[in-house]
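user: can you give me the structure for this one chain? tokens are fine.
assistant: on it. calling the predictor now.
[tool input]
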Amino acid sequence: MEALKFSEDRIKKYEAAGYRLIGSHKHAGVEICRWTKSRLRGGRNCYKSIYGIDSRRCIQMTPTVDFCNFACPWCWRPFGLHRNKAHGTVWDEPLTIVKEMIKAQRELLSGFGGNPLTSKESFNKAMRPAHVAISLDGEPTLYPFLADLINEVKSRGMTSFLVTNGSLPNRLKELIERNAIPTNLYVSVYSTSSEDYDLVTRSSVPGAFRKVFESLSLLNRFGENGCRTVFRMTVVKNVNMKDPDGYAYLIKMAEPHFVEVKGYAWLGESRLRLPRTTSPTFDELENFAEKVIEKTGYKIKMRDRISNIVVAVRDEDTWRWNIELAKKFLKLDGVPAKNY
């Protein structure tokens, strides 16, 4: 029998923290997003509502729990001893992961069926998930069957939002070649130079900045295939919250549909690595975001103090296209409530 990535004790710790590790080899996982819980209790939606996401129906998952080739100090996850060693791992098939993530999501949300703050309509919607955010933990492009995973999600009429650090452009090329185009593709960009990239991400990937640059150069090809493309920045004071000209240059080169500038949140184990003062206030974030955006010709469409994020769009035609997509996604039927 193959050894699992985690010991049984570590699996229990993940489960105690709200994760559900799925599949035979326990390298994939699901966790209920805070905005899913908020919406089910009658509260606000995630900022991703501008993309047509109903948080009640969104599965937050990853095929690569604790596998990442970056060790960014602002990451709230713990850094395991073998976090960057995905090579040689025995992987579960995409079909297994998709079936089990839907089952896990429903089980994790089952208690809301008796919550007095949760309407029957909201609960029924939650039991028919329609969106999959491949973003929970680790670097999903390390999963060798990512193209099949995205197509498995698409085959069920669900949207897929893929968030990557851009360090494996060949995996992104494979998605294009195999027509495994996600609904949204986010490339997270953490600095503007090769030297800074190695410093701030503590990457185990040689030439990380060059590879991220290559991934950014692929965004237009994804866009041509109907994918929303997003240049995403997590900015940390005194670390990478600098050089707005450099970020603007990368944005103009990549021509994404959207730019998201997100302020680092002082959470989890990042508190052991960084002082609280490195988490920008919303006013500080907004000021920096405006300096970047004004140099690109993009237009700011959302300023969210609670999520500490500023979102800009390339132009009004792109915004109208996005609104039409959002309306379509809000009408998705979702996965039928059958036995998975």
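assistant: here you go. The domain at 8-330 is CATH 3.20.20.70 (TIM Barrel). The chain has one domain: 8-330.
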